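Researcher: Quick test of sequence recovery. Tokens follow.
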């Protein structure tokens, strides 16, 4: 183990001269390699959420619109990667950020190399940057579900770039940058209920609102997934990816990170139990594979802000309660009269709100201190005001993301060539036939689609 922890030197923002005769930029991490190897492994695991969401969304859609969701899964990732390298990382994590937004100090990945990262001095900044990139494009991929079966692809990719810049980066700065106002409030958001789930869920709701209802929603009985097998496979990948999502958010290889991984599994498992229980009662003794998968995802969403703050039994309870709340909102789209067909708002928006609120109740400094330094008490430790802080977090992020997304989409809607929605004829035929060359549209019968 290195005798001293690395320190950021503003005179050496690159972390040293890798070409110098005397500098060895790796020497400062001597004995600490297991921390950044662990984090880079977590980043690779998180990447599996990308095909997971693609398969989940593709399975939930009609067969003739599923290819467009698979396509967007990778294209959104590509667009957000470019945005992150261009200015996204700097707007979220610049060291000289204001309480609300970062500067362009790291524009074009400038100075992002071997120096200790702003998130943890135990890892190089380039590793931190890559890990946080995974969060950014998973968030935008979740959000794109709001365009379900009627959104044009090119405007959605333009929206992805702009949304990451105007919504995600500021919210990430508020929450995780050491200068952010929610970070210093402090709110407790271990792995992203606010920036990832509440922001994407509320913005997906805005997307569905601006697009309007599907023309064939009533006539053709939309709502049933065409391929339950794909839904199941997608959920498996998402569940696995979430071990890296939550397990790495401590930004070190401490016991706290391992405990967060355990909590992740506990919450997902109990989320499945909670949703299946509600389905069983609602349908008078029947089960649903899709419902079980939705319960897993609800549990994962609920535990995201809490994984590194709560002990295992509260983690299980958070997963269970989040799933029960989300499953009980079966008719939410009818109540609010918005056709949000993939239930992004219900699962991620509402699920993130429930998880964030319960984090304020169950946060336990004995768990956060497992990394050796973090004390984050909640009402569980007698700090009841933490619940109010969580409510401030929820209110600010949900309102900002919804309103700004609506404004951004309305601006795009009236730009020539950027109309957001496909024609009624294209919607009837399916997005795959309308927006892809014929030879790419294959036969999915192998998967026994309905």
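Model:
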């Amino acid at each position: 183990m290195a005798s001293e922890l690395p320190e950021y030197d503003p005179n050496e923002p690159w972390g040293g001269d890798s070409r110098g005769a005397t500098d060895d930029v790796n020497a400062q991490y001597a004995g600490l390699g297991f921390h950044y190897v662990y984090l880079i492994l977590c980043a690779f695991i998180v990447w599996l959420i990308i095909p997971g969401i693609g398969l989940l969304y593709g399975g939930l859609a009609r067969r003739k619109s599923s290819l467009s969701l698979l396509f967007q899964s990778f294209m959104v990732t590509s667009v957000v990667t470019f945005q992150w390298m261009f200015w996204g990382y700097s707007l979220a994590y610049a060291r000289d950020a204001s309480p609300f937004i970062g500067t362009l100090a790291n524009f074009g990945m400038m100075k992002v190399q071997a120096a200790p990262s702003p998130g943890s001095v135990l890892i190089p900044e380039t590793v931190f940057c890559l890990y946080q990139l995974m969060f950014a494009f998973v968030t935008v991929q979740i959000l794109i579900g709001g365009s379900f079966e009627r959104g044009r692809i090119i405007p959605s990719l333009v929206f992805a770039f702009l949304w990451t810049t105007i919504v995600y980066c500021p919210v990430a700065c508020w929450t995780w940058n050491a200068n952010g106002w929610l970070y210093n409030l402090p709110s407790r958001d271990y792995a992203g209920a606010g920036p990832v789930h509440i922001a994407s869920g509320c913005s997906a709701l805005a997307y569905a609102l601006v697009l309007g209802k599907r023309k064939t929603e009533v006539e053709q009985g939309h709502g049933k997934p065409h391929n339950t097998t794909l839904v199941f496979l997608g959920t498996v990948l998402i569940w696995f990816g979430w071990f890296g999502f939550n397990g790495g958010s401590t930004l070190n290889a401490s016991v706290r990170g391992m405990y967060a991984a355990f909590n992740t599994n506990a919450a997902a498992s109990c989320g499945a139990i909670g949703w299946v229980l509600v389905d069983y009662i609602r349908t008078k003794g029947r089960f649903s594979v899709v419902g079980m998968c939705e319960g897993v995802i609800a549990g994962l969403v609920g535990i995201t802000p809490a994984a590194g703050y709560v002990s295992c039994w509260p983690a299980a309870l958070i997963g269970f309660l989040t799933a029960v709340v989300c499953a009980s909102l079966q008719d939410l789209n009818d109540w609010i009269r918005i056709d949000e067909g993939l239930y992004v708002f219900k699962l991620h928006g509402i699920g993130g709100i429930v998880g964030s609120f319960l984090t304020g109740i169950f946060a336990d400094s004995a768990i956060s201190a497992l990394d050796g330094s973090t004390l984050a008490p909640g009402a569980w430790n007698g700090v009841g005001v933490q619940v109010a802080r969580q409510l401030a977090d929820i209110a600010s992020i949900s309102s900002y993301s919804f309103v700004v997304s609506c404004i951004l989409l309305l601006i795009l809607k009236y730009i020539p060539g950027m109309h957001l929605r496909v024609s009624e004829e294209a919607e009837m035929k399916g997005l795959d036939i309308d927006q892809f060359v014929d030879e790419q549209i294959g036969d999915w019968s192998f998967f026994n689609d309905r």
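The chain has one domain: 27-439.
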